[in-house]
Structures are given as C-alpha cells and as structure tokens.
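Something for you to look into today, if you have time. Could you write out one complete protein record for me, on any chain you like? The space below this message is yours for that.
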Amino acid sequence: MHKRNLRFHGLVCLIVLIMAGIPAMATTVTLSPIADTSLFQNNPDNNLGGHTNFAAGTMANGSRSRAIVEFDPGSLIPAGSIITSVTLTLNVTAAGNSNPTSFELHPMLVNWGEGNKTGQTGAPASPGEATWNAPFASTTLWGTPGGQSGNDYAAGASASTSIGTSGAFTFASTSSLVSDVQTWLDNPGTDFGWMLLTGNESTLNSAHRFASREDGLGRGPLLTIAFSPVPEPSTMALVTLGTLGFFSFRRFKSC
C-alpha cells in the first residue's frame, strides 16, 4: 500500500509539472495608438498632434519631418504575458514621389507630449506639446532638433520596411519589435512609442503622410500583437484538484 501511495502522489506531481510547462493558448489583439504626432523641421515650433495624418521623410527642399506613435499594450494584454509577435500597419495618404522608400521604427527613449494642433503644417505649440525643437514645448528640448539618435530615440532600428505611395504597409514582426512591446508591457513607465523616419534622410522627395489616429476613415495605425497569457493560479489549482480527484476515484474503485 505504501508503494502504491508513493506511485500515486508521484504521478500527480508529474502531471501537475507537465501542465505547468504547457504554454497557454496564444491570443492576438489589435491596438490603435494612444498618441501620435509629426515633427516638422520647416515649422520647428509648431505642433501637429491633432491632425488627421502625420508625416515622415524629406521634402524636395531638404526639410525633414519625423513622426512619433505610441501604443499601450497593457490596455488589452494581461501583465506577465509573453509577447510572441508584433506587426505595425500604416496607411499612406500622400507621398513625395513614386519610388518605394525605406522607413524605420526606432524606440523612443524619452517622453513627449502629443498636443492637439491641426493643419498640414500645424500651429504654434502650447506648453507641453511636441515640436521639432522640443518633446515638451516651453519645458524641455530634444538633444538635437528633431530628436537625437541614441539620446532621444534608440540608434538602432527595431524594424524597417519599404513603403510605396498609397495604401496599407506593414512592418513585419522582428525580435526587436517583440522585445520593445515586452519591455513596455513589463515596465509601462518606459513606453514612449516609436520614432518613424526614413532609412536615408538625405534622399529628397521621400516624405510620406500616414493616416493618424484622428483619421476619420478608420485608416489609423494598427499594432497587432500575439501573446501567450500566463495561466492564472486558479486554473492550475483546478487542474491539480481534478487530477487528484480522478486518481482518488480510480484508487477507490480498485479497492
């Protein structure tokens, strides 16, 4: 009888350990931004946070623009979940030329203020709104105007893709995008979004406009995240109790 008890408890422990090692079913969610804006070198003290599109690239006169977009993974993904895939889809509403242009996503390293100014070139920023010169107008300056690589945004790109003149384009999942979102989920205080800029800002006529979260046609940025939620303790408890109950019943019948 003693050996049977040992075998019984050993089998129960083995099953519980196996169940604990099985990942939860993967789930996919799609998020819209919580903030997005453009930084215009041509209008360095203007904000464009409330406009229906944002811009990135270089104009024919050499003036640059960059965009920032931020999401909140924790709004739909439970804490402790494991991120497995991340893609970002943008819709082009206008482009400077007919040639595909390489765009990159760089994690932001500092916070910034979206603002609410509208218009193709925006309007003078109110205090706390992002501009080409400052993440928060009248308060803080970028390391260099437009944002400084390695100081205001990460020097290395998390993803890049070639973008044409119209329609939807998607940044495919990369290990860096997954790492970015995992970090933001685990440490929300580090979530400042991504900087969008062209791979070569010396290329003229590369400027593109993309539908923003204020776009009235439902074409705003979409972040699609696949993740595996961590099983809740109550779930594991039910598995354990069920296993114990099943084998207890089997032992009772065999007596």
